[in-house]
Amino acid sequence: AIDPQFNENREKVGEENGVSVWGPVDEPEQLGIRGTHVAVDYDLCIADGACLEDCPVDVFEWVDTPGHPESEQKAEPTHEAQCIDCMLCVDVCPVDAIDVDAS
Ligand code: SF4
Ligand code: F3S
């Protein structure tokens, strides 16, 4: 499961589409955690898609990640500023790749 303390345990190494990237990153096999309030561990995400389907305010967008061992698409929390902290995405992700920090 995603480390809920990722922002203390990892270094922010950049941004993509306005979303923070928390390393380590070694593309294309290792992509790190993306987002801060709504965070997705790309190295766990298997592109299940439940988060995109269920989010009531459409926080997530698909991004292509060719060559990643788990899946060649990931759910980017592109619009994390819209999040209403309903926690649906956290509940539905089959691999516990999402952390929402409601505080
Ligand atoms: Fe969307 Fe709710 Fe997840 Fe926020 S907590 S990203 S509103 S599903
Ligand atoms: Fe990925 Fe979990 Fe969403 S596997 S696509 S973060 S439901």
List strands and helices in order, with pairings.
Elements: H1 6-9, E1 12-16, E2 19-22, E3 33-34, E4 38-41, H2 50-54, E5 61-64, E6 73-76, H3 88-92, E7 98-100
Antiparallel strand pairs: 1-2, 2-3, 3-4, 4-7, 5-6
The structure holds iron/sulfur cluster and FE3-S4 cluster.
The site of iron/sulfur cluster (SF4) has 14 residues, from α3.
Characteristic terms for this protein:
single chain, 103 residues, alpha+beta, Alpha-Beta Plaits, five-stranded antiparallel beta sheet, two-stranded antiparallel sheet, 3 helices, 7 strands, 14% helix, globular, binds iron/sulfur cluster, binds FE3-S4 cluster
Explain briefly what this protein structure is.
This protein has 103 residues and is of the alpha+beta class. It is 14% helix and 25% strand.
Structure description:
With 103 residues, this protein is α+β, with helices and mostly antiparallel strands. The protein has one domain (6-100): Alpha-Beta Plaits (2-Layer Sandwich). Helices cover 14% and strands 25% of the residues. It contains 3 helices and 7 strands. It has helices spanning 6-9, 50-54, 88-92; strands at residues 12-16, 19-22, 33-34, 38-41, 61-64, 73-76, 98-100. The protein has a 5-stranded antiparallel beta sheet with strand order 1-2-3-4-7, with no helix packed on it. It has a two-stranded antiparallel ribbon with strand order 5-6. A hairpin with a 3-residue loop joins strand 3 (33-34) and strand 4. The longest helix has 5 residues, at 50-54. The model has no long low-confidence stretch (mean pLDDT 97). Bound molecules: iron/sulfur cluster (SF4) and FE3-S4 cluster (F3S). Residues 40, 45-51, 75, 92-93, 95, 97-98 line the site of FE3-S4 cluster.
